[in-house]
Amino acid sequence: MKVNTLWGEEEVLSRVCKKCKIEKPLTDFEWRTDLSYVRGSCKECRKLMTSDITKLKKHNPYPENHKCEICGKNEEEASGTWVRKSNGDRKKAFCLDHDHTTGKFRGWLCHDCNRALGQFHDNITILENAIQYLRKSI
Prior knowledge:
The structure is a single chain. The strands form 4 sheets. The protein has a two-stranded antiparallel ribbon with strand order 1-2. Strands 3-4 form a two-stranded antiparallel sheet. It has a two-stranded antiparallel ribbon with strand order 5-6. The chain folds into 2 domains: 1-59, 2-Layer Sandwich (Wheat Germ Agglutinin (Isolectin 2), domain 1); 62-138, His-Me finger endonuclease fold, CATH 3.40.1800.10. It contains 4 helices and 8 strands; from the N terminus they run E-E-E-E-E-E-H-H-E-E-H-H. With 138 residues, the protein is α+β, with helices and mostly antiparallel strands. The radius of gyration is 18 Å and the shape is globular. 32% of the residues lie in helices and 25% in strands.
């Protein structure tokens, strides 16, 4: 598969799954045409993860009259830019947050806060460093 990189277009035949850490052919990864990228986790790992999340949602139903536990946005405020799924359906304002190591449910967060935690790899030290960085400019 040809992909655009910083150095131009390159032929890529495989990648390492971020979950199982095994190098696999690109055909083992889902291509997100709506977002134009290949997912970081292979199809097998995504299937397991989706199954785990489905079980967590069964035991931790979607909240009513909820506010994000990090930013405090309510359902209307949290909908923001996350209004539509790729198939056009309305997306829920909050998403299930869980510990990726233990699989334990943590709560319901708005999409922005959930993605932010993910970008920081759920790492408390990195989050504390980010806070210190922001405080330097105050």
